[in-house]
């Protein structure tokens, strides 16, 4: 078997130039190909979303301690960093703080989130229940019933308590 000789001289220079050109081409395709999920925009969005999840987790710590004002700040940062699922808990915090207008806004935004159930079990039933409670507290019986019924259909057992009070 013949032993291969390492590249030397002109062959090494040509190989280096070709390899550099190839790597530049590959790097360009990764960064700027808009149809590729590894483009710079997608990478930035993933990084931003990761920070959003970190902020969400910090918000949950305050939420569990019933410190709704502090939790709200982190949930807002989470939303601003690309994690829209935080609308659900931000809306609930606003409900606990009796800021019904803001609660309503964030809960309606939470309903528009497509992957909410993947992130939090019972996501939509909780959002529907809290939205029903917002309407109940605003004395908007029609909308309260609509959302509490949806929450009930999604398995939220607390919704029945308020439905029976309304009817």
UniProtKB/TrEMBL annotation:
InterPro entries registered for this protein in UniProt: TPR-like_helical_dom_sf, TPR_rpt
Gene3D superfamilies in UniProt: Tetratricopeptide repeat domain
> What's this protein's name?
Tetratricopeptide repeat protein
Q: Which domain of life is it from?
A: Bacteria
Q: Which UniProt keywords apply?
A: Membrane, Transmembrane, Transmembrane helix
**Would the keyword Acyltransferase be found if you checked this record's keyword annotation?**
no
Q: What SUPFAM superfamilies does the record tag this protein with?
A: TPR-like
Bilayer-crossing regions: 12-31
**Keyword Membrane in record:** yes
